[in-house]
Structure to design on (208 residues):
């Protein structure tokens, strides 16, 4: 860790740099990281003195390597708005969290397997949580349901255990809504309207 921290009557300004060479993450692409591979992170953190003209108490921005970037603010009402970009710049929401992804390939099946092994459970989620989660994605090759979907553009909003998804690609287009596990629908509920659906061939198994 190295960097510089400055304080003045208006607040503070910190520029920090991290060496993450020894850090590892055993997750599917594009967030996998092998220990020993070079990776540095740079973060700028600013805090602000009380000022009626500035609604924020703090802000931050940074990047990890050439692929990951982040940005966020902490309001004086303690509300946090932040975004992470993977292969794309952060896309700051008015409220909550946004993930903005641009990738040549993304394997949703691998991610589902990875998350299921972590014991993730949606049944215990707090339905009163009102912090929205947004996702925007541009994927050249999306692997889902053992099939390859080309040139997928998707935008999703998740709030109070309900996800609204809008998707567009040469093979599928439309809007869907997914309600997570609930007493009235133990396995979740999917509804919506598709204007286009053409199932591609099942992708060949490359694991053997």
């Amino acid at each position: 860790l190295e960097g510089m921290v400055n304080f003045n009557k208006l607040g503070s300004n910190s520029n920090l740099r991290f060496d993450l060479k020894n850090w590892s993450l055993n997750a599917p692409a594009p967030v996998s990281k092998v220990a020993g591979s070079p990776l540095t992170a740079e973060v700028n953190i600013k805090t602000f003195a009380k000022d009626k003209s500035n609604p924020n108490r703090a802000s931050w921005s940074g990047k990890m390597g050439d692929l990951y970037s982040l940005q966020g603010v902490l309001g004086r009402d303690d509300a946090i708005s932040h975004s992470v970009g993977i292969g794309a710049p952060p896309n700051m929401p008015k409220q909550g969290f946004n993930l903005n992804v641009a990738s040549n390939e993304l394997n949703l099946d691998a991610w589902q397997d990875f998350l299921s092994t972590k014991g993730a459970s949606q049944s215990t989620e707090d339905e009163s949580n009102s912090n929205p989660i947004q996702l925007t994605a541009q994927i050249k090759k999306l692997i889902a349901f053992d099939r390859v979907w080309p040139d997928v553009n998707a935008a999703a909003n998740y709030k109070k255990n309900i996800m609204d998804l809008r998707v567009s690609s040469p093979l599928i287009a439309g809007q869907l809504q997914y309600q997570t596990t609930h007493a009235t629908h133990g396995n979740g509920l999917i509804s919506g309207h598709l204007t286009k659906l053409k199932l591609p061939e099942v992708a060949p198994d490359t694991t053997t």
Remarks:
- The radius of gyration is 20 Å.
- DSSP finds one helix and twelve strands in the chain.
- Residues 120-125 have pLDDT under 50 and may be disordered.
- The longest strand covers residues 147-159.
